[in-house]
């Protein structure tokens, strides 16, 4: 009896379910589509299609990696964010749906020059420039490996000619002023790290935590931000769900006005925005 796509999906889903992976059937479909080359949108129609056993062999190591809680995005090599797909690697923090709140809020304001501090995959800066064809930007990161991934994503999405990549510790090597500065910095406190989902242990630790109270990045950014914002320009940052008041206080102490804590779709603090006076 020949092996079918349906058989592969069932085998993978069974293994992932046994390992306690939430959403195992959905992930099984994505992994099978990835290995067989059948588009996910057509997988249901192709369930009865016979497949070579070599696909089963290719799936085995991927399933083993997922069962060890390596993120699905690392196995697929990509992650959907906003309206695009981004290449991801173990050198980058996965772009997550909650970060789309930051992109949505940023697009409410006019800007010609944007600075993304700690860009990772480039998801925030690239998404912004893709929606604003006249805008240009700079994306920074401490990791040259992350910058390489971000540059690949920018080229693939068509904004590579408008986005410069710069290795920098926050503002250290940045020059100029910007209408908009955005960042999704490491904001997880050291004491919270042990309670994280096991998948996060496969992502760059320095992109998750400052090894302290989770506020070090905001202190660094706020200390220098007025020197890099144009009058009337905005600083917008993602935050942890309990950090709204503390980060807003840092914004106000830095001299920013119209400081607001924005909630995500789950009603939890997700970002803070503030403006430089004209």
From TrEMBL:
Domain of life: Bacteria
Keyword set includes Protein transport: no
PROSITE patterns: N6_MTASE (PS00092)
Gene Ontology MF terms: nucleic acid binding; peptide chain release factor N(5)-glutamine methyltransferase activity
Methyltransferase keyword on record: yes
Domain Methyltransferase small: 102-212
GO BP field: methylation
TM region(s), chain numbering: none
Keywords: Methyltransferase, S-adenosyl-L-methionine, Transferase
EC number: 2.1.1.297
Reaction catalysed by this enzyme: L-glutaminyl-[peptide chain release factor] + S-adenosyl-L-methionine = N(5)-methyl-L-glutaminyl-[peptide chain release factor] + S-adenosyl-L-homocysteine + H(+)
Residues holding S-adenosyl-L-methionine: 118-122, 141, 170, 184
Binding annotation for substrate: 184-187
InterPro entries: DNA_methylase_N6_adenine_CS, HemK-like, N5-glutamine_MTase, PrmC_N, RF_methyltr_PrmC, SAM-dependent_MTases_sf, Small_mtfrase_dom
Residues of the Release factor glutamine methyltransferase N-terminal domain: 8-77
Biological role stated in the UniProt entry: Methylates the class 1 translation termination release factors RF1/PrfA and RF2/PrfB on the glutamine residue of the universally conserved GGQ motif.
Family, per entry: Belongs to the protein N5-glutamine methyltransferase family. PrmC subfamily.
Name this polypeptide is given: Release factor glutamine methyltransferase
Gene source species: Shimia isoporae
């Amino acid at each position: 009896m020949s092996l079918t796509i349906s058989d592969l999906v069932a085998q993978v889903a069974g293994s992932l379910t046994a390992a306690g992976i939430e959403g195992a059937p959905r992930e099984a479909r994505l992994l099978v589509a990835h290995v067989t080359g059948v588009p996910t949108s057509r997988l249901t129609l192709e369930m009865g299609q016979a497949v070579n056993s070599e696909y089963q062999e290719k799936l085995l190591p991927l399933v083993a990696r997922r069962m060890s809680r390596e993120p699905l995005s690392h196995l697929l090599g990509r992650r959907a964010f906003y309206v695009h797909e981004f290449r991801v690697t173990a050198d980058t923090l996965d772009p997550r749906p909650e970060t789309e709140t930051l992109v949505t809020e940023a697009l409410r304001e006019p800007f010609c020059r944007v600075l993304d501090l700690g860009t990772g995959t480039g998801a925030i800066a690239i998404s912004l420039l893709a929606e604003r064809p006249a805008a240009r930007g700079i994306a920074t990161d401490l990791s040259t490996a992350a910058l390489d991934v971000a540059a690949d994503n920018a080229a693939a999405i068509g904004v590579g000619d408008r986005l410069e990549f710069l290795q920098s510790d926050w503002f250290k090597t940045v020059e100029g002023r910007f209408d908009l500065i955005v960042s999704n910095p490491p904001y997880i406190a050291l004491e919270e790290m042990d309670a994280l989902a096991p998948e996060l242990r496969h992502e760059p630790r320095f992109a998750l935590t400052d090894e302290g109270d989770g506020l070090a990045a905001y202190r660094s950014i706020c200390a220098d931000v007025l020197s890099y914002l144009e009058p009337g320009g905005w600083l917008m940052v993602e935050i942890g769900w309990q950090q709204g008041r503390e980060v807003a206080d840092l914004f106000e102490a830095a001299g920013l006005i119209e400081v607001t804590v924005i909630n995500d779709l789950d009603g939890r603090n997700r970002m803070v925005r503030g403006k430089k006076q004209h």
